[in-house]
Amino acid sequence: DVWEKFHQENIKIDLGSDQTSLHNPWAGGYYPVGLTFEEANRMMADNPAQFKEEVHASLRRQADAINKHADRGTYFFDYGNAFLLEASRAGADVMSADGLTFKYPSYVQDIMGPLFFDYGFGPFRWVCTSGKPEDLEMTDLIACEVLEKLINSSPEDVRSQMADNIQWIKGAKQNKLVVGSQARILYADAIGRIKIAEAFNKAIADGKISGPVVLGRDHHDVSGTDSPFRETSNIYDGSSFTADMAIQNVIGDSFRGATWVSIHNGGGVGWGEVINGGFGMLLDGSKEADKRLKNMLFWDVNNGISRRSWARNEAAVKAISRAMLENPNLKVTLPHLVDENLFGNLL
Ligand SMILES: NC(=O)c1ccc[n+]([C@@H]2O[C@H](COP(=O)([O-])OP(=O)(O)OC[C@H]3O[C@@H](n4cnc5c(N)ncnc54)[C@H](O)[C@@H]3O)[C@@H](O)[C@H]2O)c1
Q: N or C: which end of the chain has fewer CB within 10 A?
Protein backbone atom coordinates (compact mmCIF):
# COMPACT_ATOMS: atom_id res chain seq x y z
CA ASP A 1 0.00 0.00 0.00
CA VAL A 2 2.72 2.45 1.00
CA TRP A 3 4.79 2.04 -2.15
CA GLU A 4 1.69 2.49 -4.33
CA LYS A 5 0.40 5.48 -2.37
CA PHE A 6 3.78 7.23 -2.54
CA HIS A 7 3.84 6.66 -6.27
CA GLN A 8 0.31 8.05 -6.77
CA GLU A 9 1.17 11.07 -4.64
CA ASN A 10 4.35 11.63 -6.62
CA ILE A 11 6.51 11.36 -3.54
CA LYS A 12 10.14 10.77 -4.47
CA ILE A 13 11.97 8.10 -2.46
CA ASP A 14 15.76 8.37 -2.62
CA LEU A 15 16.64 5.16 -0.84
CA GLY A 16 14.30 2.21 -0.33
CA SER A 17 14.23 -1.32 1.00
CA ASP A 18 11.77 -3.87 2.40
CA GLN A 19 12.10 -5.08 5.96
CA THR A 20 9.26 -7.56 6.35
CA SER A 21 10.21 -10.98 7.75
CA LEU A 22 10.23 -12.68 4.36
CA HIS A 23 12.60 -15.39 5.55
CA ASN A 24 9.38 -16.79 6.99
CA PRO A 25 6.73 -15.94 4.36
CA TRP A 26 4.00 -18.46 5.16
CA ALA A 27 3.72 -18.20 8.92
CA GLY A 28 3.37 -14.52 9.71
CA GLY A 29 6.55 -12.98 8.32
CA TYR A 30 4.69 -11.20 5.52
CA TYR A 31 1.10 -9.96 5.65
CA PRO A 32 -0.34 -9.72 2.12
CA VAL A 33 -2.09 -6.59 0.93
CA GLY A 34 -5.90 -6.53 1.03
CA LEU A 35 -6.39 -8.73 4.11
CA THR A 36 -6.77 -7.57 7.69
CA PHE A 37 -4.40 -8.98 10.30
CA GLU A 38 -7.17 -11.29 11.61
CA GLU A 39 -8.21 -12.44 8.12
CA ALA A 40 -4.61 -13.23 7.26
CA ASN A 41 -4.06 -15.20 10.47
CA ARG A 42 -7.24 -17.22 9.85
CA MET A 43 -6.29 -17.96 6.25
CA MET A 44 -2.76 -19.00 7.27
CA ALA A 45 -4.27 -21.69 9.51
CA ASP A 46 -7.40 -22.71 7.54
CA ASN A 47 -6.30 -22.36 3.94
CA PRO A 48 -2.49 -22.21 3.67
CA ALA A 49 -2.53 -22.77 -0.12
CA GLN A 50 -4.74 -19.71 -0.62
CA PHE A 51 -2.58 -17.72 1.81
CA LYS A 52 0.50 -18.57 -0.26
CA GLU A 53 -1.22 -17.28 -3.37
CA GLU A 54 -2.15 -14.06 -1.57
CA VAL A 55 1.48 -13.55 -0.52
CA HIS A 56 2.70 -14.17 -4.05
CA ALA A 57 0.16 -11.79 -5.58
CA SER A 58 1.05 -9.15 -2.99
CA LEU A 59 4.77 -9.51 -3.72
CA ARG A 60 4.15 -9.10 -7.45
CA ARG A 61 2.15 -5.93 -6.76
CA GLN A 62 4.76 -4.62 -4.36
CA ALA A 63 7.58 -5.28 -6.87
CA ASP A 64 5.60 -3.48 -9.60
CA ALA A 65 5.25 -0.43 -7.36
CA ILE A 66 8.94 -0.55 -6.44
CA ASN A 67 9.88 -0.79 -10.12
CA LYS A 68 7.88 2.37 -10.81
CA HIS A 69 9.77 4.19 -8.06
CA ALA A 70 13.07 2.84 -9.40
CA ASP A 71 12.18 4.27 -12.82
CA ARG A 72 11.96 7.63 -11.08
CA GLY A 73 15.38 7.21 -9.54
CA THR A 74 14.87 5.36 -6.23
CA TYR A 75 17.90 3.30 -5.18
CA PHE A 76 16.23 0.09 -4.02
CA PHE A 77 18.24 -2.64 -2.32
CA ASP A 78 17.55 -5.97 -0.62
CA TYR A 79 17.88 -5.72 3.15
CA GLY A 80 18.86 -9.37 3.59
CA ASN A 81 15.34 -10.51 4.45
CA ALA A 82 14.94 -12.58 1.25
CA PHE A 83 12.64 -10.02 -0.41
CA LEU A 84 14.19 -10.45 -3.87
CA LEU A 85 14.32 -14.21 -3.49
CA GLU A 86 10.67 -14.58 -2.50
CA ALA A 87 9.53 -11.97 -5.03
CA SER A 88 11.36 -13.89 -7.77
CA ARG A 89 9.72 -17.13 -6.63
CA ALA A 90 6.37 -15.35 -6.86
CA GLY A 91 7.14 -14.47 -10.50
CA ALA A 92 7.57 -10.75 -9.77
CA ASP A 93 9.55 -8.58 -12.15
CA VAL A 94 12.81 -8.43 -10.17
CA MET A 95 15.24 -10.34 -12.37
CA SER A 96 17.92 -8.84 -14.62
CA ALA A 97 17.86 -9.40 -18.35
CA ASP A 98 20.19 -12.43 -17.96
CA GLY A 99 17.47 -14.16 -15.91
CA LEU A 100 20.08 -15.30 -13.38
CA THR A 101 20.67 -12.29 -11.18
CA PHE A 102 18.40 -9.80 -9.49
CA LYS A 103 18.05 -6.35 -10.99
CA TYR A 104 18.47 -4.73 -7.57
CA PRO A 105 21.56 -4.85 -5.40
CA SER A 106 21.67 -6.65 -2.12
CA TYR A 107 23.23 -5.04 0.92
CA VAL A 108 25.76 -7.86 1.44
CA GLN A 109 26.62 -8.35 -2.20
CA ASP A 110 27.21 -4.69 -2.87
CA ILE A 111 27.99 -3.11 0.48
CA MET A 112 28.93 -5.41 3.38
CA GLY A 113 30.77 -8.00 1.27
CA PRO A 114 33.27 -5.74 -0.48
CA LEU A 115 33.65 -3.27 2.41
CA PHE A 116 33.77 -5.61 5.39
CA PHE A 117 33.79 -9.35 4.83
CA ASP A 118 36.45 -9.40 2.11
CA TYR A 119 38.83 -7.72 4.57
CA GLY A 120 37.86 -10.04 7.42
CA PHE A 121 35.85 -7.44 9.35
CA GLY A 122 32.86 -8.93 11.07
CA PRO A 123 30.80 -8.81 14.27
CA PHE A 124 33.16 -10.14 16.92
CA ARG A 125 31.38 -10.65 20.25
CA TRP A 126 32.15 -11.12 23.89
CA VAL A 127 30.25 -11.68 27.11
CA CYS A 128 31.56 -10.94 30.62
CA THR A 129 30.50 -13.97 32.63
CA SER A 130 30.78 -12.04 35.90
CA GLY A 131 27.69 -10.09 34.82
CA LYS A 132 29.36 -6.92 36.13
CA PRO A 133 29.01 -3.68 34.14
CA GLU A 134 32.47 -2.58 35.34
CA ASP A 135 34.01 -5.64 33.65
CA LEU A 136 32.29 -4.75 30.39
CA GLU A 137 33.56 -1.21 30.75
CA MET A 138 37.09 -2.54 31.22
CA THR A 139 36.77 -4.71 28.08
CA ASP A 140 35.57 -1.64 26.12
CA LEU A 141 38.62 0.31 27.25
CA ILE A 142 40.99 -2.55 26.41
CA ALA A 143 39.43 -3.14 22.96
CA CYS A 144 39.66 0.58 22.20
CA GLU A 145 43.30 0.74 23.26
CA VAL A 146 44.16 -2.24 21.05
CA LEU A 147 42.43 -0.76 18.00
CA GLU A 148 44.03 2.65 18.56
CA LYS A 149 47.44 0.97 18.49
CA LEU A 150 46.60 -1.15 15.44
CA ILE A 151 45.19 1.65 13.31
CA ASN A 152 48.65 3.16 12.82
CA SER A 153 50.05 0.00 11.26
CA SER A 154 46.90 -0.84 9.25
CA PRO A 155 46.87 -0.62 5.46
CA GLU A 156 45.33 2.58 4.10
CA ASP A 157 42.20 0.84 2.74
CA VAL A 158 41.05 -0.39 6.15
CA ARG A 159 41.87 2.68 8.24
CA SER A 160 38.46 4.29 7.91
CA GLN A 161 36.88 1.03 9.13
CA MET A 162 39.22 0.94 12.10
CA ALA A 163 38.37 4.57 12.88
CA ASP A 164 34.61 3.77 12.74
CA ASN A 165 35.08 0.83 15.06
CA ILE A 166 37.03 2.96 17.53
CA GLN A 167 34.26 5.53 17.50
CA TRP A 168 31.68 2.79 18.05
CA ILE A 169 33.44 1.26 21.05
CA LYS A 170 34.08 4.67 22.59
CA GLY A 171 30.37 5.46 22.47
CA ALA A 172 29.11 1.99 23.38
CA LYS A 173 28.62 2.56 27.13
CA GLN A 174 27.07 5.98 26.73
CA ASN A 175 24.63 4.66 24.11
CA LYS A 176 23.35 2.00 26.57
CA LEU A 177 23.48 -0.92 24.17
CA VAL A 178 23.28 -3.65 26.80
CA VAL A 179 19.84 -5.21 27.19
CA GLY A 180 20.71 -8.43 29.07
CA SER A 181 24.10 -10.04 29.58
CA GLN A 182 27.10 -7.75 29.86
CA ALA A 183 27.97 -8.34 26.21
CA ARG A 184 29.38 -6.37 23.33
CA ILE A 185 29.65 -6.65 19.55
CA LEU A 186 32.52 -4.90 17.81
CA TYR A 187 33.48 -5.14 14.15
CA ALA A 188 37.10 -6.30 13.91
CA ASP A 189 39.34 -8.12 11.45
CA ALA A 190 41.54 -11.17 12.16
CA ILE A 191 44.39 -9.21 13.74
CA GLY A 192 42.00 -7.01 15.72
CA ARG A 193 40.08 -9.99 17.10
CA ILE A 194 43.27 -11.82 18.12
CA LYS A 195 44.88 -8.80 19.76
CA ILE A 196 41.70 -7.87 21.63
CA ALA A 197 41.19 -11.43 22.86
CA GLU A 198 44.83 -11.68 23.90
CA ALA A 199 44.54 -8.45 25.89
CA PHE A 200 41.29 -9.66 27.58
CA ASN A 201 42.95 -12.91 28.58
CA LYS A 202 45.89 -11.04 30.09
CA ALA A 203 43.55 -8.66 31.94
CA ILE A 204 41.71 -11.65 33.43
CA ALA A 205 45.05 -13.15 34.54
CA ASP A 206 46.04 -9.80 36.09
CA GLY A 207 42.70 -9.47 37.89
CA LYS A 208 41.67 -6.34 35.96
CA ILE A 209 38.61 -8.21 34.68
CA SER A 210 37.02 -10.15 37.53
CA GLY A 211 35.85 -13.29 35.69
CA PRO A 212 36.13 -15.25 32.45
CA VAL A 213 35.04 -13.76 29.14
CA VAL A 214 33.33 -15.81 26.43
CA LEU A 215 34.08 -14.93 22.80
CA GLY A 216 31.84 -15.58 19.84
CA ARG A 217 30.63 -13.98 16.63
CA ASP A 218 27.48 -13.55 14.60
CA HIS A 219 26.81 -15.81 11.63
CA HIS A 220 26.56 -12.59 9.62
CA ASP A 221 30.32 -12.62 9.17
CA VAL A 222 33.19 -13.37 6.82
CA SER A 223 33.39 -17.05 7.80
CA GLY A 224 31.27 -19.90 8.93
CA THR A 225 28.34 -19.16 6.68
CA ASP A 226 27.10 -20.61 3.41
CA SER A 227 24.27 -18.27 2.53
CA PRO A 228 23.91 -17.78 -1.23
CA PHE A 229 21.17 -15.16 -0.90
CA ARG A 230 22.94 -13.03 1.67
CA GLU A 231 26.36 -13.40 3.33
CA THR A 232 28.01 -15.32 0.51
CA SER A 233 26.02 -13.83 -2.35
CA ASN A 234 29.08 -12.07 -3.75
CA ILE A 235 31.18 -15.22 -3.96
CA TYR A 236 31.05 -15.68 -7.68
CA ASP A 237 32.98 -18.93 -8.07
CA GLY A 238 29.84 -21.03 -7.67
CA SER A 239 30.73 -22.22 -4.18
CA SER A 240 28.02 -19.97 -2.73
CA PHE A 241 25.60 -22.79 -3.52
CA THR A 242 27.48 -25.39 -1.48
CA ALA A 243 27.29 -25.86 2.28
CA ASP A 244 30.90 -26.97 2.74
CA MET A 245 32.53 -23.91 4.24
CA ALA A 246 30.40 -23.67 7.36
CA ILE A 247 31.29 -27.29 8.13
CA GLN A 248 35.00 -26.79 7.41
CA ASN A 249 35.00 -23.68 9.57
CA VAL A 250 33.42 -25.46 12.50
CA ILE A 251 35.71 -28.51 12.22
CA GLY A 252 38.76 -26.24 12.06
CA ASP A 253 37.55 -24.17 15.01
CA SER A 254 36.89 -27.27 17.11
CA PHE A 255 40.38 -28.72 16.55
CA ARG A 256 42.01 -25.36 17.14
CA GLY A 257 40.56 -24.85 20.56
CA ALA A 258 36.95 -23.61 20.45
CA THR A 259 35.13 -24.36 23.71
CA TRP A 260 32.05 -25.32 21.70
CA VAL A 261 30.91 -25.16 18.10
CA SER A 262 27.48 -25.24 16.54
CA ILE A 263 25.89 -25.73 13.14
CA HIS A 264 22.59 -24.03 12.39
CA ASN A 265 20.17 -24.26 9.51
CA GLY A 266 18.21 -21.22 8.42
CA GLY A 267 19.50 -18.35 10.56
CA GLY A 268 18.28 -15.01 9.20
CA VAL A 269 17.29 -16.01 5.69
CA GLY A 270 15.13 -19.05 6.29
CA TRP A 271 15.22 -22.79 6.85
CA GLY A 272 16.96 -24.61 4.00
CA GLU A 273 18.48 -21.43 2.54
CA VAL A 274 21.61 -21.20 4.71
CA ILE A 275 24.00 -23.23 6.88
CA ASN A 276 25.79 -21.37 9.65
CA GLY A 277 28.73 -22.47 11.74
CA GLY A 278 29.46 -20.78 15.04
CA PHE A 279 31.72 -21.08 18.05
CA GLY A 280 32.12 -20.10 21.67
CA MET A 281 35.51 -19.68 23.32
CA LEU A 282 36.12 -19.29 27.02
CA LEU A 283 38.96 -17.02 28.11
CA ASP A 284 39.95 -17.71 31.71
CA GLY A 285 43.30 -15.97 31.88
CA SER A 286 45.29 -19.19 31.43
CA LYS A 287 48.27 -19.80 29.14
CA GLU A 288 46.26 -22.49 27.35
CA ALA A 289 43.51 -19.99 26.57
CA ASP A 290 46.13 -17.63 25.15
CA LYS A 291 47.39 -20.37 22.83
CA ARG A 292 43.89 -21.46 21.83
CA LEU A 293 42.65 -17.98 21.01
CA LYS A 294 45.54 -17.29 18.64
CA ASN A 295 45.17 -20.65 16.94
CA MET A 296 41.46 -20.55 16.55
CA LEU A 297 40.65 -16.93 15.75
CA PHE A 298 43.36 -16.90 13.10
CA TRP A 299 41.74 -19.88 11.38
CA ASP A 300 38.19 -18.74 11.98
CA VAL A 301 38.60 -15.47 10.07
CA ASN A 302 41.22 -16.40 7.47
CA ASN A 303 39.26 -19.48 6.45
CA GLY A 304 36.50 -17.20 5.19
CA ILE A 305 38.87 -14.69 3.60
CA SER A 306 40.61 -17.53 1.70
CA ARG A 307 37.36 -18.54 0.10
CA ARG A 308 36.54 -14.97 -0.84
CA SER A 309 40.02 -14.68 -2.30
CA TRP A 310 39.63 -17.90 -4.34
CA ALA A 311 36.46 -16.28 -5.70
CA ARG A 312 38.74 -13.42 -6.89
CA ASN A 313 37.23 -10.74 -4.67
CA GLU A 314 39.88 -8.07 -4.91
CA ALA A 315 39.98 -6.96 -1.28
CA ALA A 316 40.06 -10.57 -0.07
CA VAL A 317 43.11 -11.29 -2.25
CA LYS A 318 44.81 -8.34 -0.56
CA ALA A 319 43.70 -9.40 2.92
CA ILE A 320 44.88 -13.00 2.59
CA SER A 321 48.20 -11.86 1.08
CA ARG A 322 48.64 -9.63 4.12
CA ALA A 323 47.83 -12.54 6.46
CA MET A 324 50.45 -14.69 4.72
CA LEU A 325 53.07 -11.97 5.12
CA GLU A 326 52.31 -11.73 8.80
CA ASN A 327 52.32 -15.46 9.31
CA PRO A 328 54.71 -17.28 6.97
CA ASN A 329 53.27 -20.62 8.05
CA LEU A 330 50.01 -19.74 6.32
CA LYS A 331 49.96 -20.93 2.72
CA VAL A 332 46.84 -20.10 0.72
CA THR A 333 46.74 -20.55 -3.05
CA LEU A 334 46.08 -17.24 -4.75
CA PRO A 335 43.79 -17.13 -7.76
CA HIS A 336 45.27 -16.63 -11.23
CA LEU A 337 43.49 -13.73 -12.81
CA VAL A 338 42.70 -14.12 -16.48
CA ASP A 339 42.83 -11.06 -18.73
CA GLU A 340 39.16 -10.86 -19.73
CA ASN A 341 40.05 -9.38 -23.15
CA LEU A 342 42.39 -12.21 -23.97
CA PHE A 343 39.75 -14.69 -22.94
CA GLY A 344 37.09 -12.92 -25.02
CA ASN A 345 39.31 -12.92 -28.12
CA LEU A 346 39.85 -16.67 -27.82
CA LEU A 347 36.11 -17.23 -27.99
N1 LIG B 1 20.22 -7.37 7.20
C2 LIG B 1 20.38 -7.75 8.43
O3 LIG B 1 21.44 -7.67 9.02
C4 LIG B 1 19.21 -8.23 9.12
C5 LIG B 1 19.21 -8.10 10.48
C6 LIG B 1 18.10 -8.51 11.15
C7 LIG B 1 17.04 -9.04 10.45
N8 LIG B 1 17.10 -9.19 9.11
C9 LIG B 1 15.95 -9.74 8.38
O10 LIG B 1 15.04 -8.67 8.20
C11 LIG B 1 13.70 -9.13 8.35
C12 LIG B 1 12.99 -8.30 9.37
O13 LIG B 1 13.53 -8.51 10.69
P14 LIG B 1 12.82 -7.90 11.96
O15 LIG B 1 13.56 -8.41 13.14
O16 LIG B 1 12.69 -6.42 11.76
O17 LIG B 1 11.40 -8.63 11.87
P18 LIG B 1 10.00 -8.27 12.53
O19 LIG B 1 9.18 -9.49 12.34
O20 LIG B 1 10.21 -7.72 13.90
O21 LIG B 1 9.45 -7.07 11.65
C22 LIG B 1 8.85 -7.26 10.42
C23 LIG B 1 7.75 -6.20 10.29
O24 LIG B 1 7.17 -6.28 8.99
C25 LIG B 1 5.78 -5.95 9.12
N26 LIG B 1 5.11 -6.44 7.91
C27 LIG B 1 4.77 -7.70 7.57
N28 LIG B 1 4.18 -7.72 6.35
C29 LIG B 1 4.12 -6.44 5.92
C30 LIG B 1 3.66 -5.80 4.72
N31 LIG B 1 3.10 -6.51 3.74
N32 LIG B 1 3.79 -4.47 4.61
C33 LIG B 1 4.36 -3.74 5.59
N34 LIG B 1 4.83 -4.27 6.75
C35 LIG B 1 4.71 -5.61 6.90
C36 LIG B 1 5.39 -6.65 10.41
O37 LIG B 1 4.21 -6.08 10.95
C38 LIG B 1 6.60 -6.38 11.28
O39 LIG B 1 6.45 -5.19 12.01
C40 LIG B 1 13.82 -10.62 8.69
O41 LIG B 1 13.61 -11.39 7.53
C42 LIG B 1 15.22 -10.77 9.20
O43 LIG B 1 15.76 -12.06 8.99
C44 LIG B 1 18.14 -8.76 8.42
A: C
CA dihedral 25, 31, 37, 41 (to 10 degrees): -20
- Going by alpha carbons, the residue nearest to atom 33 of ligand 1 is 20
Strand-pairing partners, residue 106, are: 78
Residue 347, pLDDT above cutoff 70:
no
Q: How far is the CA of 18 from the centre of ligand 1 (A)?
A: 8
pLDDT grade, residue 235 (50/70/90)?
A: confident
Atom 6 in ligand 1: residue holding the nearest Cα: 268
Beta strands in 197-342 (DSSP E): 213-217, 225-226, 260-265, 275-283
The matching CATH number, chosen from 3.40.50.150, 2.40.70.10, 3.40.190.10, 3.40.50.10730, for 2-105 is 3.40.50.10730
Give residues with Cβ within 8 angstroms of 231, minimum separation 6.
108, 113, 117, 219, 220, 221, 225, 274
**Domain 113-326, CATH class in plain words:** alpha beta
Q: Which one of 4, 19, 225 would you pick to mutate in the ligand 1 pocket, going by the greatest count of ligand atoms within 8 A of its CB? A: 19
Name every protein residue with a CB atom under 6 angstroms from any ligand 1 atom.
19-23, 30-31, 79-81, 220, 268
Q: pLDDT per residue over 118-140, tens digit each?
A: 999 999 999 999 999 999 999 99
User: What is the CA 203 to chain-centroid distance, rounded?
Assistant: 29
User: What tens digit of pLDDT does each residue of 278-332 get?
Assistant: 999 999 999 999 999 999 999 999 999 999 999 999 999 999 999 999 999 999 9
Residue closest via CA to ligand 1's atom 2 equals 80
Average pLDDT over residues 77-102: 91
108-122, 194-208, 328-342 — most confident range: 194-208
Task: Provide CATH 3.40.50.10730 ranges for the chain.
Answer: 2-105
CATH 3.40.1770.10 residue ranges of the chain are: 113-326
